[in-house]
Each structure stands twice: as C-alpha cells, then as structure tokens.
C-alpha cells in the first residue's frame, strides 16, 4: 500500500511540476497529416507550430507525400512540399527555421512503404539539403515503418526517431528518440467532451510519466481534437498537442492570457 501511495505521489509531482513550469505555446502544437491542409507546411509554419507531419511513399525512386497510395499526385513530393520550403525559410531567417532563433521545428516523416528502402531514400535526399541537416533549429523525425529499434544509433545524426512506449530502448538507441507517439485509443475511449473517466486519466498520465522519465515529450494521435480536449491535454502535460485544426489550436494557445 505504501509503495502504491508513493508511486501515485510521484506521478502527481512529475505531471503537476511539468505543467506548472511550462507555459504552452504554438511550439507545443503538431500539425497532423499536414499535407492535407490547404497550404501544406506554410499554414502550420505561419502559425509558428513546433511540429508538422508528412506521410511518405517511395514510388519510382520518388518520395511522394499522400495519405494513401491512391492519393499520390505529381508535384506533391517531400522535396517540393517540405524540404524546399524549409530551405527558403532558413535562408530568409539567417540560418534559422523561424525568425526567432530560439524556436525549433520538428518534421515528422511517416514512412508508409518498406522502412529500410524508404529511409535510405530519405537520407539520400536530405543530404542534398545541408542547410537543413546541419541546422539545430530543425529536427527530422522518422516515424511509421522504421528500422529495427536496436539499430537506431547506426543512422546519421541528422535524423531522429519517433519512440514506442511499449519498447525498452538501450541508452544509445534512446538517445536517437526525439519524442514518443502513441495511439490515444490504446489508453482511452474518451470523446473529448466533459472530463475523461478516472481509468482513462490514470492510463494517459502513466504514459505521459513514462515518456517524461525517458526525458522525452509525448504526442497522442487519434485523440479528440477540440478546445476542451486541448485544455485537458495541456493540464496533463502532453508534450505535443495533435491537431488537424491549425488555426483553432493556434488561437487557443495564443490568445488565452
């Protein structure tokens, strides 16, 4: 019983301490399936988001950006939708992705085709953009189909990886994990209205604590996407709030104080 009370107390200290010491801003916002926005990359960038996501298919030696293979269209590639715009921002901002040199941007690249060939193609393409891969204000994060979790450390230092909370990483591989992403529905069926039930809240907080103990932020995908849910996630200490509603989340995070 004493052990259980201690663990509950530790959870409350970590979660409450994290949220009290951290002011949430658009740097905590993640544009989910960003390529489906009216202006991929630019909409999230204009609002100052800290993270954007692109699904990538390796097709005929090209890195096509789409949600499904049937949606692949000419002119919608990783290079044209994300890498070229990133380079233009860096050049405009004297070597930084944002005008504020303290701001960072994560580009999550979700590999939808076979992990190793797709990742190899991503690495080859990124090497054509030294102003991106040598830039401390940008983090390239590989998610989706990934290489073996025991071999993350062998890949170039300019890429990081999306972590899996169910896996126990060795130190040198954990060092390559930038954040943890988890399916919200693995922890809760809450629909974003009212408050999550106590079991859901406990499960979510346990996941947040596990990520925090590893020194990483967490993002829940498939989560409720409304103002009430954003308030709850902020209070819990979710590192990146996942959204398809860029303008609304930006408004929520920017105009509250």
Automatic annotation (TrEMBL):
Gene3D superfamilies: Phosphatidylinositol (PI) phosphodiesterase (3.20.20.190)
GO biological process, one term: lipid metabolic process
Classification via InterPro entries: AIM6_PI-PLC-like_dom, HAT_RTT109-like, PLC-like_Pdiesterase_TIM-brl
MF terms in GO: phosphoric diester hydrolase activity
Identification of the protein by name: Altered inheritance of mitochondria protein 6
Protein's organism: Niabella ginsenosidivorans
């Amino acid at each position: 019983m004493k052990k259980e009370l201690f663990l509950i107390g530790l959870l409350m200290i970590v979660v409450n301490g994290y949220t009290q010491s951290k002011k949430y801003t658009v740097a905590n916002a993640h544009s989910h399936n960003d390529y489906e926005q009216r202006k991929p990359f630019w909409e999230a960038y204009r609002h100052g988001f800290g993270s954007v996501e692109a699904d990538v298919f390796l097709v005929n030696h090209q890195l096509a950006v789409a949600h499904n293979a049937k949606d692949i269209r000419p002119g919608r590639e990783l290079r044209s939708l994300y890498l070229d715009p990133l380079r233009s921002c860096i050049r405009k901002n004297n070597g930084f992705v944002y005008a504020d040199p303290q701001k960072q941007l994560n580009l999550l690249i979700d590999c939808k085709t076979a992990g190793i060939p797709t990742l190899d193609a991503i690495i080859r393409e990124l090497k054509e953009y030294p102003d991106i891969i040598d830039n401390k204000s940008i983090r390239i994060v590989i998610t989706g189909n990934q290489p073996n979790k025991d071999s993350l450390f062998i890949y170039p230092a300019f890429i990081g990886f999306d972590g899996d909370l169910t896996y126990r990483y060795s130190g040198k591989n954990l060092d390559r994990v930038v954040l943890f992403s988890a399916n919200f529905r693995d922890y809760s069926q809450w629909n974003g209205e009212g408050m999550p039930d106590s079991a859901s809240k406990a499960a979510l907080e346990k996941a947040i604590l596990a990520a925090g103990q590893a020194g990483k932020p967490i993002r829940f995908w498939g989560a409720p996407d409304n103002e009430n849910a954003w308030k709850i996630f902020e209070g819990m200490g979710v590192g990146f709030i996942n959204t398809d509603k860029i303008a609304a989340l930006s408004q929520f995070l920017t105009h509250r104080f």
